[in-house]
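Hi R.,

Here's the input for the S-adenosylmethionine complex you asked about:
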Amino acid sequence: MTTEERFDKFSEMIRERNKVMNLTSIVDVHEIEVKHFEDSLSIVPIIDKYSGKGERTSVRVIDIGTGAGFPGIPVKIVCEDLEVTLMDSVGKKVDFVNDVIRELKLDKAVAIHGRAEDYAHKTEFREVYDIATARAVAALPVLCEYCLPFLKVGGIFIAMKGGESEDIGSAQKALEILGGEVIDEIRFELGEDKFKRRIIVVKKVKTTLAKYPRKAGKPAQNPL
Ligand code: SAM
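And here is the predicted structure with S-adenosylmethionine in place:
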């Protein structure tokens, strides 16, 4: 399948599945292209710049709270060589993403049903990823607790946010506790309507203590 065929098929599958379940509020073809596909692809240059490998072949990416597959699926379509894990706590969304992976014939991609707080404690997931990303999942301190434990030291967390999102200072304590440092912040405008977007790039500078993330629900109830 070509890249274009994959995006068309993905768009069609979103619109079809949305008739029988609440997958995404964005269902117009053009809106899917801009707010889901283009927005997701905004992190590709960041992956290339910071993965530190010079090539995509051995780069492992985890997308936490992927929902209908964002940003992970568009990124995987464009960067076929990446190894991509997509995680969500809602089983039906994960079933959809696995259907997409099968239909689009994407290899080295898998969707997993579970919570970040639980999977981050499993040996085969902990500190093994080069890149973690999340779009529209939680506030920055909460996201840091979800995502940093998955990263190798030297790995990169890419937080995708709206333009008016919280101050980076609100995550300072979480970053110190979990071993992260903000290394970049990118602001841009998406599409002809110029939706404001912001990407925060965090580097993992030291290993995360075994007690983090705290048990499921705790990071969101009581952010660090
Ligand atoms: N990232 C997608 C996007 O931008 O379209 C979905 C965003 S949706 C607002 C947030 C998603 O995060 C939901 O699908 C929810 O099930 C998932 N989620 C929230 N907390 C989670 C956690 N602790 N572990 C895994 N998934 C989580």
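One thing worth noting: The pocket of S-adenosylmethionine is lined by residues 64-68, 70, 87-90, 93, 115-117, 135-137, 146 (CB under 6 Å).

Cheers,
M.
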